[in-house]
Design a protein that fits this description.
7-stranded mixed sheet; alpha/beta; Aspartate Aminotransferase, domain 2; 4-stranded mixed sheet; about 400 residues; 2 domains; binds pyridoxal-5'-phosphate
């Protein structure tokens, strides 16, 4: 069978299983709303958790700082080369100094994206004779990093720290270094890692702990540093990864770490070295959004209250949901039913996309609601009723 025949067959299977993906035609975005197939929908599928992506005041602050007459045409549109060549704009240093002092740690390092961070850090730090232990439900970018690394890689059951400890006990003394990698707020289930337990295991087994705060940064903690701040453990995690593309409404990512680890990554991390640096226009916006985090605690509080109320209302209707964060999944089970429910929501004015295997485990297809701070309860109050009716219809 030729390659084209093979992939055609695979695509046919995906279609039959309602798993064929197309890049959606995204319409105009206006705050919490988005145009989609000719309709204006409340966007509950974005990671703009603080609802600041279209914030006019913040945008104006950015434009005030944007001086086209200044050196290199203000915030230039391109960095034109890797950070190790000529792409290391002074804004990188400003952001990294700011982040290190905000987290009260020695150093920070900015990356092009969370994906770049996660596929680069573990392959740089680990080697043969090391062991990486990875939560089973970690994001694909973390899994890819584990796969690229030369170290042995095992998954522990999701948030099952007894299982993790069994693996640590077995590994202790048999590997040069053991690593644990986890998300803080899990992207598909909206539940949270127990950072206290993980830091305890780190201490007892001499493990190097990496925590991905992609969905925690900007959302958790009094000043928005993430679950590590809320758990008062920012100083006990070897690398905290945060992303700028979600609650910080921009693009890029960062790691918080010791100075020596930073030096090592600058010398060895391939996804940092062999890629064009972020453009200064983005770096300027990242800096501005970071500087305003402290003033956004009311948004965080509102977001958490909204999520709690939404979960409670879903449970009252007997709907299956998990987690304890702004990410609220409603598990519908089969792919067909999930697609049907998403369509019914769309008809009612809500964009809440279905998430299906392989992104989530088999038979746990779901509607993933990403709540946001720029909406109020009345905007979403009808959803549990709609779900209740829709989930009864359609095939599974
Ligand atoms: C947990 C987690 N880490 C990393 C990433 C990748 O981040 P980025 O979108 O900046 O590449 C994502 C993106 O969805 C994520 O959910």
């Amino acid at each position: 069978m030729s390659l084209k025949e093979r992939i055609r067959k695979e695509l046919e299977v995906l279609s039959a299983e309602k798993r064929f993906r197309v890049l959606p035609d995204t319409g105009v975005r206006q705050g919490a709303f988005i145009g989609s197939r000719g309709k204006k929908l409340l966007n509950l599928s974005s990671n703009d958790y603080l609802g600041i992506g279209d914030d006019t005041w913040l945008r104006n602050q950015y434009l005030l700082a944007f001086d086209p007459e200044s050196e290199s045409g203000g915030f230039s549109m391109t960095s034109s080369s890797s950070r190790l060549l000529t792409g290391n704009h002074r804004l990188y240093n400003e952001i990294e100094d700011y982040l290190a002092s905000w987290y009260n740690r020695e150093a920070a390092l900015v990356f092009n994206s969370g994906y770049h961070a996660n596929i680069g850090i573990l392959p740089a730090l680990s080697a043969r004779h090391d062991l990486i232990l990875c939560d089973r439900l970690n994001h694909a970018s973390i899994i890819d990093g584990c796969r690229i690394a030369d170290a042995e890689f095992k998954r522990f059951r999701h948030r099952d720290y007894e299982h993790l400890e069994t693996l640590l006990e077995k590994g202790y003394g048999n590997y040069r270094q053991m690593f644990i990698v986890t998300e803080s707020v899990f992207s598909m289930d909206g539940d949270r890692a127990d950072l206290e337990k993980l830091c305890d295991l780190r201490e007892r087994y001499g493990v190097f702990l990496i925590v991905d705060e992609a969905h925690g940064a900007g959302v958790c903690g009094e000043s928005g540093k993430g679950l590590c701040e809320e758990s008062r453990l920012s100083g006990s995690i070897d690398i905290i990864v945060g992303t700028f593309g979600k609650a910080f409404a921009s693009a890029g990512a960062y790691g918080i770490m010791d100075g020596i680890v930073r030096d090592y990554l600058v010398n060895t991390m391939r996804s940092l070295i062999f890629t064009t640096a972020l453009p200064p226009v983005i770096l300027g916006w990242n800096m501005l959004v970071l500087e305003h985090q402290r003033a956004m605690s009311a948004k965080r509080f509102h977001l958490h209250s909204l999520a709690e109320r939404f979960r409670e209302a879903l449970r009252e209707k007997g709907l299956r949901t998990t987690g304890e964060s702004q990410i609220v999944p409603v598990i519908t089970g089969g792919n067909n039913k999930t697609v049907h429910v998403a369509e019914v929501l769309r008809e009612a004015g809500f964009l809440a996309l279905p998430v299906r295997p392989p992104t989530v485990p088999e038979n746990t297809a779901r509607i993933r609601f990403s709540l946001r701070a720029d909406i109020v309860w009345e905007d979403i109050a009808v959803i549990p009723d709609i779900l209740c009716q829709a989930a009864g219809g359609g095939e599974t």
